[in-house]
Amino acid sequence: MEPTNQKFLERVVSQKALQMGSSFPCQICVVGFLCGVCLTSLFLAVLTSVGTFGFTGISFSSLSMGDSPLNSSSEIINAITSSDYQSKVKETARWVDLKGREPESDDDERVSLLTEAWGALLVDREPEESEFSKRFGLSKSSLPNTPHLENCKLSAQVNKHLDTRSGAGRFPPWTTWKGSLNMYPATETDENLRSFKDQPVSDGAYPPWIVGSDEENYPLTRKVQSDIWKHQHPVNCHDPNIKFLVADWEKLPGFGIGAQLAGMAGFLAIAINEKRVLVTGYFNRADHDGCKASRGSWSCYFFLETSQECRDRAFELITNKEAWEKGTIKGKDSYKSKEIWTAKVPRVWGDPWSYLQPTTDINGSLIAVHHKMDRRWWRAQAVRYLMRFQTEYTCGLLNVARHAAFGKEAAKMVLASIDRDWPKVITNQPKSEIEEFVWSNHRPWVPRPLLSMHVRMGDKACEMKVVKFEEYMELAHRIQMHFPHLKNVWLSTEMQEVIDKTRSYPHWNFYYTNVTRQVGNVSMATYEASLGRKTSTNYPLVNFLMAVESDFFIGALGSTWCFLIDGMRNTGGKVMAGYLSVNKDRFW
Fold first, then answer.
1. What residue segments make up the domains of the chain, in order of their start?
2. Cα separation of 143 and 223, whole Å?
3. Which pLDDT tens digit goes with each residue over 327-338?
4. pTM (global) more than 0.85
5. Class assignment of domain 450-581?
6. N or C: which end of the chain has fewer CB within 10 A?
């Protein structure tokens, strides 16, 4: 009985359902439900596709202001390794046929390709032509000129030529011809030109590492730099009348690079006053794998202070007891600490510091006279000489920094000036002589005007008055009021809170090195130890040199580092750019 009733009930329900399903309102509901399911499925499919295309490989850090293309540098100060670069290539879409794509997409792909291809040339081991072609579908020769990068190998060769006496003790070719032009082949066959280049340097000639006129530098800068070079490069280092001073760089844990430079400036003053050739010894900050052949030596980063012949002679005399007794050679232990740090400034040039240009602004007023003006002038001269020529390694560090900061902007600029169909259409033109010997002497491109700002806080409070980042930006605004096209800032600081505060200034473009920074107050020695010797040396030097090359500078004169940056700028043609400081030197 029960099965029969169940079948009857099912039959009734089925008929009723059929009647309802055939009604028009029900049909509308069913169609609507099915359309909703289809639209939902389509939406989910599109969302998944967009997510896969747009967000693959992007980390949280790349979404922050600190890594945005216009507002920062994701700089890799330690030289990029091949493995690092290969992983980047895997994350980057291969170049494909761009026909049919939107113009914006075309431009983005071309910019990315050119930026990545330029970056491949900056790795430790530059890829072979076949490897490069496989990665990018391009030959190296097909790449457009890199306006923001320097030919480091060529620069090192030219600088060595300008820093070395030629045969028979002749002076380097410090003529009115600049840089690569001194190596122009035609001058070797023209008798008049060759005679001109072989003439001894005249009193009017000045060192090629000095930029600008006398009015654009500290008083007597060109003459002083020339005289220091002559003093440090005697014709015959084995002359028995030549005396030496051999000194290692200071290596106490609490001493930063600025203190080390100030100490060596003292030794150079002593050497000149005592008519000795200064020979630098162990430089602890160069004692890392990046320096390779010049490990532990100042020559990892900059040209040495004297010739290799004089260095060899000095280190030979170190083991000679009689040389020490006669005073032919002296060392660091020959002098008291006070004699080094407050060394008597050489008076052989008179007192040019008495008429320093008053271009330093503190609290809205120019500082015309202050204590220790002689020390300020001398340290500027000494540091300029010690850092007169960068090595190929230092040049490479700057290339990596500029490419990380400005590479994408440079690529956009270059691509706007060449065939729009690049890289499908490539026109290879041989370099003209004017490109090779004249234009090659121009400095690498950076977005100008560029303001460098060094914000020193942390444990520096025990030595000077520290101020908030907002006060630095008030000074930046003062400059911008006079130069309204200024919007680019190269920011150097050890404090993470400073980097975080840049988000409050969206109308400025901030560039900075991508290194771990301090959170809270720790000693500089502890902070540097956490970074490791290589990074803690490389990234400050890059910031230092970028500050020297910038159009404007804001810092704190109470910081030795800022003090030395100011000195380098004032012996590098930047006197009339002025200097806005948030405080005065603690010794004034």
1. 104-149+393-441, 216-352, 450-581
2. 42
3. 999 999 999 999
4. no
5. alpha beta
6. N
